[in-house]
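Deliverable D2.4 — example input (structure tokens):
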């Protein structure tokens, strides 16, 4: 109910006193309230599908809510994974907090980011955050390792196992192979009600750098921590090609090269990224897999390159064979005469 008030000078002058003291003040107040209600953004729901939250999804729970018995100063029985847990002392009348991190990486040390190499680093990282007080002292960290062997199907199953009832992980670390990472990063938005974050130092292919702000985005829950990607390498090559005014490229690549970087077919993934951005820049390119030329590599190079392309030697076996088989001396003087053509050897 509107009542007359003497505070009428907050809007207008003395001439407006009768209006402001009576109806206008109430009317403006109602408009203000309605404006706030109408203009407020609609509530935003987390997660990409509605699911019933499982009790184990919480990091902190009461001991009597756990399905295992805890006694003062003891650790729960996790079987083989018991050694991967750092536990504070707990009592029956306090909350028990545990962060479960699912680590999905190959056990094969041929890959740089493999379990035997990464686990000591994770232990040192945990020691550091404990020592510096970055992480609450009463929160246990449990590492749950899985060997995905750089296989897509196996990595997917490992992600499902790590987030199932037996482990109920809060975070996925890895995979470190691009082919294995793709399916895990795709399904992560549909695990639990709010999804599960996937943090990796891999994800070199350009698809992993696409926008991830909405549920509709393919890799919505993926976080890349690496500074280098194939997209950045492609930008570097484009800048180099533009600098010398080249416009045609022959791209020699080994499909299975650099396995230690991103697992199987790293060379093929790099070539796909290069090709994607060469098309954007209207650079004519011709890919050639050296896998198909293993029986007669020299003849294949002569047929593919011939004398139509100047060469930039990359210091590899393919570059040396290319120079000798085509009869082209790849000196800087001769390259400068053929600035419209370049052969990239990877």
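Example output (designed residues):
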């Amino acid at each position: 109910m509107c009542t007359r008030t003497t505070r009428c000078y907050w809007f207008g002058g003395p001439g407006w006193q009768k209006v402001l003291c009576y109806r206008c003040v109430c009317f403006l107040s109602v408009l203000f309230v309605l404006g706030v209600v109408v203009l407020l953004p609609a509530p935003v729901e987390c997660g990409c599908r509605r699911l019933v939250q499982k009790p184990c999804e919480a990091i902190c729970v009461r001991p009597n809510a756990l399905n295992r018995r805890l006694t003062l100063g003891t650790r729960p029985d996790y079987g083989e994974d018991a050694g991967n847990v750092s536990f504070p002392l707990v009592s029956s009348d306090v909350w028990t907090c545990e962060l479960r991190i699912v680590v999905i990486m190959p056990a094969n040390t041929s890959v740089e980011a493999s379990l035997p190499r990464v686990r000591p680093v994770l232990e040192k990282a945990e020691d550091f955050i404990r020592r510096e007080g970055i992480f609450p002292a009463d929160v246990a960290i449990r590492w749950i390792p899985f060997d995905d062997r750089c296989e897509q199907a196996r990595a997917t199953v490992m992600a499902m196992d790590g987030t199932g009832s037996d482990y109920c992980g809060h975070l996925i670390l890895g995979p470190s192979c691009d082919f294995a990472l793709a399916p895990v990063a795709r399904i992560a938005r549909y695990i639990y009600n709010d999804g599960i974050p996937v943090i990796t130092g891999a994800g070199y292919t350009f698809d992993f750098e696409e926008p991830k702000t909405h549920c509709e985005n393919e890799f919505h829950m993926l976080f890349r921590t690496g500074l280098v990607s194939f997209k950045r390498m492609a930008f570097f090559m484009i800048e180099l090609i533009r600098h010398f005014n080249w416009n045609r490229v022959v791209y020699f690549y080994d499909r299975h090269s650099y396995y230690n970087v991103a697992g199987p077919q790293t060379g093929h993934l790099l070539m796909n990224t290069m090709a994607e951005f060469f098309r954007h820049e209207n650079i004519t390119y011709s890919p050639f897999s050296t896998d198909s030329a293993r029986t007669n590599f020299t003849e294949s190079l002569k047929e593919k390159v011939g004398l139509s392309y100047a060469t930039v030697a990359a210091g590899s076996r393919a570059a040396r064979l290319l120079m000798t088989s085509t009869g082209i001396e790849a000196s800087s003087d001769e390259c400068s005469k053929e600035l419209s053509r370049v052969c990239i050897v990877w």
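The mean pLDDT is 74.
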